[in-house]
């Protein structure tokens, strides 16, 4: 990095990382974890889990690894839902602390499963230094293979294994990236699991050279630099430095060659970060490197927050998944009703809550006082702001819409000429009010098939 300073120029830390992490290094190279973090047991009882059910399943008993599955509670209600995306989640903790059962990660996965909604599989992997990297990566890949071959009823009934995302926070974000790199070489062996993207929440990376954000936030109260250094010292293979590929995705100058294969697979990668995190510059550089390889990257970088804020303040996690925007245009034959009409207001409320999405309902000018194209500039003004596709009702979703949309010779109009919802004579009157004076219903505003269809 051009804006980095040599590792040995970093001022001596004023924080004891062992004390900060509440750990003691033992003579045999293991650590004693003095602080017991709160855990939450899994619960598959719908009466005890209003948002999402959860259960634990052994992965590899010889390694004491397991999976915690999360299922949105609402899928149990009729009618049976379509299959949901699958999110494989890797918890944070610097590779040395915490677990899938830790309350902070359990609660995060409950909310994630309920709000997306999705089936979430949180991986309980082996921790360092008792099991140094790549042990955690190995466990994660083993979990992916298990998911593809297991007969678990939740996965079989509710998860779309062909729509899988790898996600992680901090060290878990590092894992999602590294496991993703491994997975590109195992695409066929992983089927029916098909990875569609990576979600990297403030991923934990490092390097021999210090970045500007690391120097600026060396003594950060949440994640001081010396704590990250200690975590890498305990997690990396013995004898390697911070430019090892597990730690520094930029090692070698251009990143891993495996990353070159992500783009052709069509994966999307979300990278998040906050400028109050010492790792901020590394996260931004990772996103830039991936974009340079032609990978579809969404970089979500914010101001003022700190490392792992999404776990400590759950409300911030919602910022990870910006809602889609739907621009809605109410019906009424261009001549009656409004965005405030109860029927459309109720529809938009249900649409926003059910998807979920941000819904903008446009109050456009009505005919005949304002004939077409008066209503259309509102569509252009809102839809032209950055890739938003206006989304109204399907014109063939009901009788009224079908009669208004199609030309006078269409079978639906002839068959339903006296329909109680939309008499053809009423529709004729609406077009008479709405169309520019002197044109017929083969005008492009009324008949999209005129002249062989609109040439966009």
From TrEMBL:
Keywords: Hydrolase
Family annotation (Gene3D superfamilies): alpha/beta hydrolase
Pfam families: Abhydrolase_3
MF GO annotations: hydrolase activity
UniProt keyword annotation of Cell membrane present: no
Record SUPFAM superfamilies: alpha/beta-Hydrolases (SSF53474)
Domain Alpha/beta hydrolase fold-3: 87-309, 326-376
Family membership: Belongs to the 'GDXG' lipolytic enzyme family.
Protein name (database record): Alpha/beta hydrolase fold-3 domain-containing protein
Originating species: Ficus carica (Common fig)
